[in-house]
Write a structure and sequence with these properties.
Length: 237
């Protein structure tokens, strides 16, 4: 079972609509925006611990065959004996855990048998691969919209594409990115990356916040072509 952003948005819209004094104050674009913010908040609460937590497939979005290129390691304060690659394109903002670690479920070379890379923070990347048992590992960190890959393995220079499964802060930015760069076909009716057990919480939070805002708005009860609501809110004016 899946749900689209439009389905979620219009369900909330139809619940709020009869309860507001001015239906023009309710906008579906605003509701979509609030859904995205609430989804991100709930995911951080559930999966944002610094301890390792398995990310459910339902909240993950994938980018396949993302092209990478070589970078001068010294430009990113990485030791010169390491290979440094980065994505050619900036990807949408990734959600982060409380530790600053990006919520990446899997990142690997775009081949069937490739091993998963080790995700680290930019600070950890400086010293990555210096241990006794991890010198052959490939480390990945996210900074300024790019994914960077660090390793001591010269053979990695031959890798041209990677696959990424991650949790993006705003899924609609992922939709836009895929449509613009990788021949996607995404819109508000596409499958929205949210766990089913989050849907009720999202609806309740967005509805509560919208009605709370509505209850604080002044009402213009007088049809006299003047903005009586402003006078009521500011009687001294």
């Amino acid at each position: 079972m899946s749900v689209s952003l439009n389905e979620l948005g219009y369900r909330i819209f139809n619940i709020i609509l009869p309860k507001v004094s001015d239906d023009s104050s309710i906008d579906i674009a605003d509701i979509r925006y609030d859904i995205e913010n609430t989804r991100a908040l709930l995911i951080k609460r559930r999966y944002g611990s610094k301890f390792k937590t398995q990310l459910p497939e339902a909240i993950v979005q994938s980018i396949e065959s993302l092209e990478i290129e070589s970078v001068n390691a010294s430009n990113v304060i990485i030791q010169s004996d390491k290979v440094l690659m980065k994505t050619k394109l900036q990807i949408p903002q990734l959600l982060e855990k409380s530790s600053g670690m990006p919520m990446v479920k899997r990142i690997s070379a775009a081949t069937v048998l490739s091993n998963n890379f080790t995700v680290v923070t930019p600070q950890q990347a400086i010293y990555s691969g210096n241990g006794k048992f991890n010198q052959k590992n490939i480390f990945c960190f996210y900074e300024d919209g790019y994914l960077y890959l660090v390793t001591k393995r010269d053979l990695f220079k031959g890798v041209k594409y990677i696959d990424v499964d991650a949790v993006f802060e705003r899924p609609t930015e992922y939709f836009t990115f895929m449509n613009a760069n990788l021949s996607g076909a995404f819109d508000y009716d596409s499958n929205y990356p949210v766990a089913l057990d989050m849907i009720d919480d999202i609806e309740q939070i967005v509805i509560k916040n919208k009605l709370r805002i509505e209850s604080t708005q002044p009402v213009d009860d007088v049809n006299d072509s003047s903005d009586t609501s402003k006078q009521m809110a500011n009687p001294s004016n």
